[in-house]
Amino acid sequence: MSIPLALLEENARKIRALEQELRENELLSDPKIQFLLKTINEARNQRIFDSKLEHLFEFLKMFNTDAQRTYDSFRPYGPEVLLNQGDLHLLDQMDGVKFSIDPDKLLTGALVLGPQGMGKSRLITSICKQLSIIRPDIKVLILDPKNGFSSLSVFRHLDLGKMSFDLSSPLGVEQDNYITEFMPILANITSVIFGVDFFNRAVDDSLSQLRGYGGDTTLCLKDIYESLAKFKPKSFRTQGYLDAAKFGLSQLLGPSNIFSCRKGLSLDWLFGENTVINARCLTGEVECKGLLNYLLFWLYQKYRNVSETKVIKHLLIIDDSTRFVGVPNTFHSEKRTSPLGHILAVLRSAGVAVMFATQIPSQIDPAVLALSRNMFVVGNINGENNLRVLQSYMSLTPEQKSSILRFQKRESLAFISGSAWSRPVHGWVPFVPDEAEGDVNITDCSNMIVPWHSLTEVPKSEAPKPIKQVSNVNTALDKLLLDCIHYPYSKVREHIDRMGVSVRVYETAVNSALQEGYLLHSMSGKSVYLIPTKQTYDKFNVPVPYERSVSVEHSFYVGLAAHLSKQCKGLKVQTETPAGQKGATIDVTLINGKAEMFAVEITLNTGNLLSNAAKLQDTSYKKIVWLTKDAASAKAVKAYFNKITSLPNELIDKFEYSHFSKFNSFLKKGIV
Fold this sequence. Notes:
Layout: H1 5-24, H2 31-41, H3 46-69, H4 80-83, E1 88-93, E2 98-101, E3 110-113, H5 120-134, E4 139-144, E5 156-159, H6 175-189, H7 196-212, H8 221-228, H9 236-253, H10 267-270, E6 275-278, H11 285-303, E7 314-318, H12 322-325, H13 340-350, E8 352-358, H14 366-371, E9 374-378, H15 384-394, H16 398-403, E10 411-415, E11 425-428, H17 464-486, H18 492-499, H19 503-515, E12 519-524, E13 527-532, H20 534-539, H21 552-566, E14 572-578, E15 585-591, E16 597-602, H22 609-614, E17 623-628, H23 631-643, H24 649-652, E18 655-659, H25 660-670
Parallel strand pairs: 3-8, 3-9, 4-6, 4-7, 5-6, 7-8, 16-17, 17-18
Antiparallel strand pairs: 1-2, 1-11, 9-10, 10-11, 12-13, 14-15, 15-16
Helix pairs in contact: 1-3, 2-3, 6-7, 6-11, 7-8, 8-9, 9-11, 11-13, 17-19
InterPro entries: HerA-like, HerA_central, P-loop_NTPase
Domain Helicase HerA central: 91-153
Protein name: Type IV secretory pathway, VirB4 component
C-alpha cells in the first residue's frame, strides 16, 4: 500500500530534521546510517517508513547517551570500511567496529606498551592464536622471561635453562667470517669500547685450537673467554682493556650455560616451529641483550643476501623487552650507535618481523623505536617521558596524551603505519579466556646439546686417529641409514636403541646424513622423522619406494598414512589410486567393512588445495580427509575451504580435517 499524499510532506520534514541531527553528530557518513536512510527514502508504505525511522532514532539516542556518559578525545572513530582491511583482528573500536589488518602489516615492527596485568599478554596471545590459523606459514618465536605465555598450548615450549648455543654459522655462511663479524656486536653488548682487538685475537686463537682438536665440535663464547685468559699484555693500559673485555664477557656468560657448550642447539630447528622460550633463568641485562642480539645476528647472516619481500616469514616477540633492548650504556657522555638498527632493517626486508613488549617505552633503544612503525598501548601509561614517546609516535594532541592516564584494563590504542585509517584507533583488546591450568609440556632438547669442556684439555689428534674416527662415524652413519630404510616411521629413541650407540654418536651420524643429503629432517607435530632420500636407497641398492611422488617428503607422509591405516583391522588400504583425470591420483584410498570408500589427501601446505579438491568432484567417496602434519595446518586448510566459493557445497560437505597425531583416533571414530 503506497503512502498517502498527505503524509509525504510530513515524512520529508522528519527526514530533513533527522539528517541535520546526524550531520551535527558526524554520523551521516556511517554505512549503517546510509543504508537506513536509503531504505526510508525507498519505502513504499508508511509501516516500513515508521519502522526504519524508529531504528534511526534509536541509533541516534544510543549515540547521544554514550557521548553523555564518556567523552572520547579520539573521535571521530574510523569507519568500518577503512578499519576492516584483513583477517588479523587486533581490537574492537569503542563503537563496536572490529579493527582488522593484513598480518603482513606487522613486518615493519611493532611495540606493545602498557603496565603489568592490563592486557599486553592477552593481545599478543590473541595475535599468535590467530596467526597459527590464518597464516601457519609464519613461524613465531616468543622470548618469555616472565612465563606469561604458557597458555599457548599449540606452541612448542622450551626451557632456556636447559639450552645452549654455539657459534655455528647458517648454511652457506663462512664460519670464520661469521664469528669475526659478531665480535663488534659482542663488544657493544658488553660495553667494551677498546677491547674489540682482544676479542678478535681470542677468536683467532680459538679457531687455531679448533683446527687441532681431534673431534667433531664447534666454538662457543666460553672458548673465547678461555683464550682471553691466556693473554699477558705488556703495558698497564692494555692490561686494563683486557680486564674490561674479560669482565664484560664474564657478565654475558653469567651463571648459566647458555653460551657454554661443545655443540649447541640448532637454530634452524629452533626457528622451524612456533615456539615459546621460557627465559626466567635470565637475571642480568647483559645476558638478555646477548641472547637477543645473537639470535637476530644469526637470522641477519642467514637472510642478508636474499631478495626483498613484503611477506612475513618469521615473527619474534620479546616480552619485557627493556632488559633486551634497553638504552645502550655509555661512558664519558659518548653516544654509540646500536648495531640493532642495521640488523632490524635488513631483517625487515627479508621477511622477519620483531615485536617488542615493555612497560617503559622511554628506556627502549632509539634504533628500535625508530624502526618499529606500529604501536599498541594497552592500559594506562604513566610518566612524562613515556607519554612523550607515545605523543611523538602517534601525533597525539595534549588532550589525547592525558586521556591515556585514565585507560582501564584491556582498553587499548592502536596505530598501524600504512593502514587505510591513518589515525590511532581507540578500543578494547579482544578477550582471550584463560585456558585450563595444567603442567606445560616442555620439549626436551638436551639430546641435541653436548656439554662444554675446554679445547686445551683434549690432546691434538695424531695422524692415524682421524682415519679411525671417520671410519667410526661412517659405520654409525651406515647403521643409521639402514635403520631409517627398514624402520622409516620410528622415533628418535627407537633408532638409537636399535643402533646400540650413544646419543652423541647418533647426533654426529644424523648431522652427517643431513649435510650429505642422505636424510631429510621433518617434524609432524612434536614427532621428528628422518626421511631417507633416493640417494640413500641407491647407496644400498634398495628399490626406491616413492619414485612417482611429487616430493620425497610428501611421499613419505603418504606411506605413513597408509602404515597407520593398516594398523586398523577391517580396513583395505590402497595408495596412488587413479582419480579419472589424466595423471591424477588419490594419495590413500580406504575401504571399510561396509564397502564405503574414503579418500585421504596429504597436504603439506595450502598451495595446491583447489586443484587437489577439483579432481575429487564426481567421485563416489563417502568422505574426503585432508591430512596435515600438525593441528595448525589442519585449521588453515579448513579455513581455506570455508572461504572458497568455486567448489560445490555437496563436495565441501564431504571434507574432514585431521593431522597425524590424531589420525589413529580419527580412523577408529570416523571410518572403521
